């Protein structure tokens, strides 16, 4: 005795037919969705770049706590506070040390084109372990010499020549590049970063409109 089975003919789902009945519209729809997804990835990348770049400097600090002015809305708004707060912080139990860091913007003259561009200046005592980068460690004594600076290797090309030995002007005062370090720019320091000693920062008049901004570092 033989058994026979009947298979129902294969049918195309209605949903697929609705999609493919007009292939031009299907391709246009797929392109639109793909473009929207691409824009979402781009905007997410911009957002992450903003947040990551804003905290990269903080991540390099040798510190557990950062003190700033109550008037400061973010890390890079120049608002000062009294230096006595540093000494008060040192009296708290568990605070090992507190160091001042000065942050300001200054006009850097491109030694090749002679055009000036703003650059972010970070100033501190080279003997204080604020930014324990290997490049800075190797030039601690050099930074204590008058009118010497170190320039970020990731500065924009508009900054110009930044190799050691370069002589140019920072806010109309002649300075000499004695070394480089690697940090990276962000939305606040779009052109680059520069490091100098606190003595060079405070003893000169190159920052005529500056406000001293001690950013205590705690360990």
Question: Explain this structure to me?
Answer:
It is a single chain. The chain has 219 residues and is of the alpha+beta class. It folds into 2 domains: 20-58; 61-218, no CATH class. The protein has 6 helices and 9 strands; from the N terminus they run H-H-E-H-E-E-E-H-H-E-E-E-E-H-E. The protein has a 6-stranded mixed sheet with strand order 3-4-8-5-7-6. A 3-stranded antiparallel sheet has the order 1-9-2. The protein is elongated and about 85 Å long. The relative contact order is 0.18.
| Chain-averaged pLDDT | 82
Quote the distance from N terminus to C terminus: 91 Å
Instruction: Provide the number of structural domains.
Output: 2
**Beta-strand fraction estimate:** 15-25%
What is the count of helical runs?
Answer: 6
Radius of gyration over alpha carbons?
A: 28 Å
User: What overall geometry do the principal axes of the alpha carbons give?
Assistant: elongated
Q: How many E strands?
A: 9
How are the SSEs ordered, and which strands pair?
Blueprint: H1 14-20, H2 23-60, E1 65-66, H3 84-90, E2 98-99, E3 102-109, E4 116-124, H4 134-137, H5 140-143, E5 148-152, E6 167-170, E7 173-181, E8 193-197, H6 198-203, E9 217-218
Parallel strand pairs: 4-8, 5-7
Antiparallel strand pairs: 1-9, 2-9, 3-4, 5-8, 6-7
Features:
219 residues, alpha+beta, 2 domains, 6-stranded mixed beta sheet, 3-stranded antiparallel beta sheet, 6 helices, 9 strands, disordered C terminus
Concise description?
This protein has 219 residues and is of the alpha+beta class. 30% of the residues lie in helices and 21% in strands.
